[in-house]
Amino acid sequence: MDINVSNFSMQTKVMIYSIAAVILTIGMRDIATILIPIFFSVFIFLIFAPLIYWLKRKGIPGGVSIGLVILFFIMVFTGTGVLLMEFLPQFTSQIPDYQIQLTESMESLAGYLPVGMPLEGFLPDIGVFIVGLTAGLLTTILNAGTTVGLIIITTIFLLLDIAVPGKIRKEAKKHPFLLSRTNDLGSKLVDYIVIRTGINLVGGIGAALILFIGGIDFAILWGILTFILGYIPYIGFFLAVLPPTLLGLFKYGIAGAMAVFVAIWLLNLLIENILFPSVAGKGFELPPSIIFISLMYWTYVLGTPGALIAVPLTMVVKMVIESSGDMRWRTELRESEKED
After folding, report:
1. Where are the alpha helices (DSSP H) in the chain?
2. What distance in Å separates the CA atoms of residue 240 and residue 29, rounded to the nearest whole number?
3. Where are the transmembrane segments (predicted)?
4. What is the pLDDT of residues 58-80, one digit of tens each?
5. First CA to last CA across the chain, in angstroms?
Protein backbone atom coordinates (compact mmCIF):
# COMPACT_ATOMS: atom_id res chain seq x y z
CA MET A 1 0.00 0.00 0.00
CA ASP A 2 1.34 3.43 -1.01
CA ILE A 3 1.35 5.90 1.90
CA ASN A 4 1.37 9.58 0.99
CA VAL A 5 2.73 11.68 3.85
CA SER A 6 1.36 14.87 2.28
CA ASN A 7 -2.19 13.69 3.14
CA PHE A 8 -1.42 13.65 6.87
CA SER A 9 -2.25 16.51 9.22
CA MET A 10 0.46 18.99 10.21
CA GLN A 11 0.76 17.48 13.71
CA THR A 12 1.21 14.00 12.26
CA LYS A 13 3.84 15.25 9.79
CA VAL A 14 5.79 16.95 12.59
CA MET A 15 5.70 13.77 14.66
CA ILE A 16 6.81 11.56 11.74
CA TYR A 17 9.66 13.89 10.72
CA SER A 18 10.76 14.30 14.35
CA ILE A 19 10.93 10.54 14.88
CA ALA A 20 12.83 10.14 11.61
CA ALA A 21 15.30 12.88 12.65
CA VAL A 22 15.89 11.21 16.03
CA ILE A 23 16.45 7.79 14.46
CA LEU A 24 18.78 9.28 11.84
CA THR A 25 20.73 11.17 14.51
CA ILE A 26 21.19 8.07 16.67
CA GLY A 27 22.21 6.02 13.64
CA MET A 28 24.77 8.59 12.45
CA ARG A 29 26.23 8.89 15.95
CA ASP A 30 26.67 5.12 16.20
CA ILE A 31 28.61 5.00 12.92
CA ALA A 32 30.45 8.32 13.38
CA THR A 33 33.84 6.62 13.01
CA ILE A 34 32.80 5.60 9.49
CA LEU A 35 31.05 8.83 8.56
CA ILE A 36 33.90 11.15 9.60
CA PRO A 37 36.42 9.90 6.98
CA ILE A 38 33.67 9.85 4.33
CA PHE A 39 32.44 13.38 5.05
CA PHE A 40 35.94 14.81 5.21
CA SER A 41 36.99 12.99 2.04
CA VAL A 42 34.05 14.51 0.16
CA PHE A 43 34.82 17.89 1.74
CA ILE A 44 38.46 17.79 0.58
CA PHE A 45 37.47 16.34 -2.81
CA LEU A 46 35.23 19.36 -3.41
CA ILE A 47 38.22 21.62 -2.68
CA PHE A 48 40.60 19.95 -5.13
CA ALA A 49 38.21 18.81 -7.88
CA PRO A 50 37.84 22.31 -9.39
CA LEU A 51 41.60 22.30 -10.02
CA ILE A 52 41.18 19.31 -12.33
CA TYR A 53 38.53 21.07 -14.41
CA TRP A 54 40.65 24.24 -14.47
CA LEU A 55 43.65 22.29 -15.81
CA LYS A 56 41.42 20.65 -18.43
CA ARG A 57 40.24 24.06 -19.62
CA LYS A 58 43.90 25.00 -20.04
CA GLY A 59 44.29 22.13 -22.51
CA ILE A 60 45.96 19.58 -20.22
CA PRO A 61 44.66 16.02 -20.83
CA GLY A 62 42.23 14.63 -18.24
CA GLY A 63 44.49 11.85 -16.96
CA VAL A 64 47.44 14.20 -16.58
CA SER A 65 45.24 16.79 -14.83
CA ILE A 66 44.02 14.23 -12.32
CA GLY A 67 47.56 13.00 -11.71
CA LEU A 68 48.87 16.52 -11.13
CA VAL A 69 46.06 17.38 -8.71
CA ILE A 70 46.52 14.12 -6.77
CA LEU A 71 50.27 14.84 -6.56
CA PHE A 72 49.54 18.39 -5.35
CA PHE A 73 47.03 17.05 -2.83
CA ILE A 74 49.56 14.56 -1.44
CA MET A 75 52.25 17.25 -1.25
CA VAL A 76 49.93 19.64 0.64
CA PHE A 77 48.89 17.03 3.18
CA THR A 78 52.40 15.63 3.55
CA GLY A 79 53.85 19.11 4.05
CA THR A 80 51.19 20.02 6.60
CA GLY A 81 51.71 16.71 8.40
CA VAL A 82 55.48 17.24 8.55
CA LEU A 83 55.01 20.73 10.01
CA LEU A 84 52.55 19.47 12.60
CA MET A 85 54.79 16.56 13.56
CA GLU A 86 57.67 19.01 13.88
CA PHE A 87 56.01 21.62 16.07
CA LEU A 88 53.32 19.78 18.05
CA PRO A 89 55.70 17.55 20.09
CA GLN A 90 57.85 20.60 20.88
CA PHE A 91 54.83 22.52 22.13
CA THR A 92 53.34 19.63 24.11
CA SER A 93 56.69 19.02 25.82
CA GLN A 94 56.61 22.59 27.13
CA ILE A 95 53.02 22.45 28.39
CA PRO A 96 54.01 21.74 32.05
CA ASP A 97 56.23 24.86 32.02
CA TYR A 98 53.43 26.88 30.41
CA GLN A 99 51.00 25.74 33.09
CA ILE A 100 53.37 26.91 35.82
CA GLN A 101 53.90 30.26 34.09
CA LEU A 102 50.19 30.74 33.55
CA THR A 103 49.37 29.90 37.17
CA GLU A 104 51.94 32.44 38.34
CA SER A 105 50.55 35.05 35.95
CA MET A 106 47.00 34.44 37.15
CA GLU A 107 48.05 34.63 40.79
CA SER A 108 49.83 37.94 40.18
CA LEU A 109 46.76 39.23 38.36
CA ALA A 110 44.58 38.18 41.29
CA GLY A 111 46.60 40.53 43.47
CA TYR A 112 45.04 43.49 41.66
CA LEU A 113 41.49 42.34 42.41
CA PRO A 114 39.59 43.47 45.52
CA VAL A 115 40.06 41.20 48.54
CA GLY A 116 37.29 38.62 48.80
CA MET A 117 36.23 38.89 45.17
CA PRO A 118 35.00 35.42 44.08
CA LEU A 119 37.02 35.49 40.85
CA GLU A 120 40.27 35.72 42.79
CA GLY A 121 40.29 32.08 43.84
CA PHE A 122 39.26 30.81 40.41
CA LEU A 123 41.89 32.55 38.28
CA PRO A 124 44.65 29.90 38.71
CA ASP A 125 42.15 27.13 37.93
CA ILE A 126 40.96 29.03 34.85
CA GLY A 127 44.57 29.27 33.66
CA VAL A 128 45.19 25.54 34.05
CA PHE A 129 41.89 24.80 32.24
CA ILE A 130 42.85 27.03 29.29
CA VAL A 131 46.23 25.36 28.83
CA GLY A 132 44.65 21.92 29.22
CA LEU A 133 42.03 22.79 26.58
CA THR A 134 44.72 23.86 24.12
CA ALA A 135 46.78 20.74 24.84
CA GLY A 136 43.75 18.50 24.35
CA LEU A 137 42.92 20.13 21.02
CA LEU A 138 46.45 19.72 19.69
CA THR A 139 46.71 16.14 20.99
CA THR A 140 43.49 15.28 19.13
CA ILE A 141 45.04 16.59 15.91
CA LEU A 142 48.26 14.66 16.56
CA ASN A 143 46.45 11.38 17.26
CA ALA A 144 44.24 11.53 14.16
CA GLY A 145 46.81 9.69 12.02
CA THR A 146 44.68 6.64 11.15
CA THR A 147 41.64 8.72 10.25
CA VAL A 148 43.76 11.08 8.16
CA GLY A 149 45.19 8.09 6.28
CA LEU A 150 41.69 6.85 5.43
CA ILE A 151 40.69 10.37 4.34
CA ILE A 152 43.70 10.65 2.04
CA ILE A 153 43.07 7.27 0.40
CA THR A 154 39.33 7.88 -0.02
CA THR A 155 39.93 11.36 -1.45
CA ILE A 156 42.38 9.98 -4.01
CA PHE A 157 39.80 7.42 -5.19
CA LEU A 158 37.17 10.17 -5.44
CA LEU A 159 39.52 12.24 -7.59
CA LEU A 160 40.24 9.22 -9.77
CA ASP A 161 36.49 8.75 -10.33
CA ILE A 162 36.44 12.01 -12.29
CA ALA A 163 38.21 10.16 -15.10
CA VAL A 164 35.20 7.90 -15.72
CA PRO A 165 32.07 10.07 -15.38
CA GLY A 166 30.38 8.79 -18.56
CA LYS A 167 28.24 6.06 -17.00
CA ILE A 168 27.14 8.37 -14.17
CA ARG A 169 26.11 11.09 -16.62
CA LYS A 170 24.26 8.57 -18.79
CA GLU A 171 22.18 7.42 -15.83
CA ALA A 172 21.67 10.98 -14.55
CA LYS A 173 20.24 12.14 -17.89
CA LYS A 174 17.30 9.82 -17.30
CA HIS A 175 16.28 12.11 -14.42
CA PRO A 176 16.75 15.68 -15.74
CA PHE A 177 15.00 17.45 -12.84
CA LEU A 178 17.03 15.54 -10.25
CA LEU A 179 20.18 16.24 -12.25
CA SER A 180 19.37 19.96 -12.35
CA ARG A 181 18.78 20.15 -8.60
CA THR A 182 21.89 18.08 -7.86
CA ASN A 183 24.06 20.29 -10.07
CA ASP A 184 22.66 23.40 -8.39
CA LEU A 185 23.29 21.98 -4.92
CA GLY A 186 26.76 20.79 -5.86
CA SER A 187 27.84 24.08 -7.44
CA LYS A 188 26.73 26.11 -4.42
CA LEU A 189 28.44 23.74 -2.03
CA VAL A 190 31.68 23.69 -4.05
CA ASP A 191 31.67 27.49 -4.29
CA TYR A 192 31.23 27.84 -0.53
CA ILE A 193 33.95 25.31 0.33
CA VAL A 194 36.45 26.73 -2.15
CA ILE A 195 35.81 30.33 -1.05
CA ARG A 196 35.89 29.39 2.65
CA THR A 197 39.18 27.52 2.14
CA GLY A 198 40.74 30.47 0.33
CA ILE A 199 39.61 32.88 3.06
CA ASN A 200 40.96 30.56 5.77
CA LEU A 201 44.27 30.35 3.93
CA VAL A 202 44.54 34.15 3.94
CA GLY A 203 43.70 34.18 7.64
CA GLY A 204 46.19 31.45 8.50
CA ILE A 205 49.05 33.08 6.57
CA GLY A 206 48.18 36.50 8.00
CA ALA A 207 48.07 35.20 11.57
CA ALA A 208 51.39 33.35 11.14
CA LEU A 209 53.05 36.52 9.79
CA ILE A 210 51.71 38.66 12.64
CA LEU A 211 52.90 36.19 15.25
CA PHE A 212 56.28 35.70 13.54
CA ILE A 213 56.87 39.46 13.47
CA GLY A 214 55.79 39.65 17.11
CA GLY A 215 58.29 36.96 18.10
CA ILE A 216 55.64 34.53 19.35
CA ASP A 217 56.83 30.91 19.57
CA PHE A 218 55.44 28.35 17.07
CA ALA A 219 53.98 31.03 14.78
CA ILE A 220 53.60 28.56 11.87
CA LEU A 221 51.75 26.09 14.11
CA TRP A 222 49.25 28.77 15.17
CA GLY A 223 48.84 29.79 11.52
CA ILE A 224 47.90 26.20 10.60
CA LEU A 225 45.55 26.06 13.60
CA THR A 226 43.93 29.35 12.50
CA PHE A 227 43.40 27.92 9.00
CA ILE A 228 41.81 24.70 10.31
CA LEU A 229 39.63 26.33 12.98
CA GLY A 230 38.49 28.98 10.52
CA TYR A 231 35.89 26.47 9.33
CA ILE A 232 34.17 26.77 12.73
CA PRO A 233 32.11 29.98 12.78
CA TYR A 234 32.47 32.32 15.76
CA ILE A 235 34.02 29.76 18.15
CA GLY A 236 36.94 28.87 15.88
CA PHE A 237 38.49 32.34 16.18
CA PHE A 238 38.64 32.20 19.98
CA LEU A 239 40.08 28.67 19.97
CA ALA A 240 42.77 29.74 17.47
CA VAL A 241 43.72 33.02 19.18
CA LEU A 242 43.93 31.56 22.69
CA PRO A 243 47.33 29.77 22.52
CA PRO A 244 49.33 32.64 20.94
CA THR A 245 47.67 35.11 23.33
CA LEU A 246 48.89 33.01 26.26
CA LEU A 247 52.40 32.87 24.80
CA GLY A 248 52.25 36.66 24.39
CA LEU A 249 51.34 36.88 28.08
CA PHE A 250 54.35 34.77 29.07
CA LYS A 251 56.78 36.70 26.89
CA TYR A 252 55.57 40.30 27.15
CA GLY A 253 53.06 40.40 29.98
CA ILE A 254 49.49 41.68 29.88
CA ALA A 255 50.28 44.32 27.23
CA GLY A 256 51.79 41.67 24.94
CA ALA A 257 48.79 39.36 25.35
CA MET A 258 46.41 42.22 24.52
CA ALA A 259 48.49 43.21 21.49
CA VAL A 260 48.43 39.63 20.11
CA PHE A 261 44.70 39.28 20.68
CA VAL A 262 43.82 42.66 19.15
CA ALA A 263 46.05 42.11 16.08
CA ILE A 264 44.50 38.72 15.25
CA TRP A 265 41.02 40.01 16.13
CA LEU A 266 41.42 42.88 13.64
CA LEU A 267 42.63 40.41 11.00
CA ASN A 268 39.61 38.19 11.66
CA LEU A 269 37.31 41.21 11.56
CA LEU A 270 38.69 42.24 8.17
CA ILE A 271 38.38 38.73 6.77
CA GLU A 272 34.96 37.74 8.11
CA ASN A 273 33.15 41.09 7.77
CA ILE A 274 34.71 42.57 4.64
CA LEU A 275 36.64 40.02 2.56
CA PHE A 276 34.38 36.97 2.88
CA PRO A 277 31.05 38.81 2.26
CA SER A 278 32.51 40.62 -0.76
CA VAL A 279 33.71 37.35 -2.32
CA ALA A 280 30.90 35.02 -1.32
CA GLY A 281 27.95 37.39 -1.57
CA LYS A 282 24.63 36.72 0.15
CA GLY A 283 23.97 33.32 -1.37
CA PHE A 284 25.83 31.47 1.39
CA GLU A 285 24.43 33.30 4.40
CA LEU A 286 22.85 31.29 7.19
CA PRO A 287 21.18 32.87 10.24
CA PRO A 288 23.52 32.95 13.28
CA SER A 289 20.99 30.95 15.28
CA ILE A 290 20.99 28.18 12.66
CA ILE A 291 24.79 28.14 12.60
CA PHE A 292 24.99 27.89 16.39
CA ILE A 293 22.42 25.08 16.52
CA SER A 294 24.18 23.24 13.68
CA LEU A 295 27.50 23.46 15.55
CA MET A 296 25.94 21.86 18.62
CA TYR A 297 24.13 19.21 16.58
CA TRP A 298 27.01 18.06 14.37
CA THR A 299 29.45 18.16 17.30
CA TYR A 300 27.06 15.91 19.21
CA VAL A 301 26.71 13.52 16.25
CA LEU A 302 30.32 13.40 14.98
CA GLY A 303 32.31 14.74 17.92
CA THR A 304 34.89 17.53 17.54
CA PRO A 305 35.40 16.90 13.76
CA GLY A 306 31.71 17.63 13.26
CA ALA A 307 32.26 21.27 14.23
CA LEU A 308 34.68 21.74 11.31
CA ILE A 309 32.15 20.69 8.67
CA ALA A 310 28.96 21.76 10.46
CA VAL A 311 28.23 24.63 8.07
CA PRO A 312 28.69 22.63 4.79
CA LEU A 313 26.58 19.78 6.18
CA THR A 314 23.88 22.25 7.25
CA MET A 315 23.96 23.84 3.80
CA VAL A 316 23.40 20.40 2.26
CA VAL A 317 20.43 19.75 4.57
CA LYS A 318 19.01 23.21 3.78
CA MET A 319 19.37 22.71 0.02
CA VAL A 320 17.83 19.23 0.16
CA ILE A 321 14.84 20.55 2.10
CA GLU A 322 14.43 23.42 -0.35
CA SER A 323 14.73 21.04 -3.29
CA SER A 324 12.17 18.63 -1.88
CA GLY A 325 9.83 21.52 -1.22
CA ASP A 326 10.24 22.75 -4.78
CA MET A 327 9.67 19.23 -6.10
CA ARG A 328 6.50 18.88 -4.03
CA TRP A 329 5.22 22.22 -5.38
CA ARG A 330 5.79 21.08 -8.97
CA THR A 331 4.03 17.78 -8.34
CA GLU A 332 0.99 19.53 -6.90
CA LEU A 333 0.95 21.92 -9.88
CA ARG A 334 0.97 19.02 -12.34
CA GLU A 335 -1.86 17.28 -10.47
CA SER A 336 -3.97 20.46 -10.54
CA GLU A 337 -3.34 20.81 -14.29
CA LYS A 338 -4.54 17.24 -14.87
CA GLU A 339 -7.74 17.88 -12.91
CA ASP A 340 -8.45 21.00 -15.01
Report:
1. 10-30, 32-57, 62-93, 95-110, 118-142, 145-160, 166-172, 176-213, 219-229, 235-252, 254-270, 276-280, 288-302, 304-308, 310-339
2. 27
3. 12-28, 34-54, 66-88, 127-160, 189-213, 219-242, 249-271, 291-321
4. 888 888 888 999 999 999 888 88
5. 27
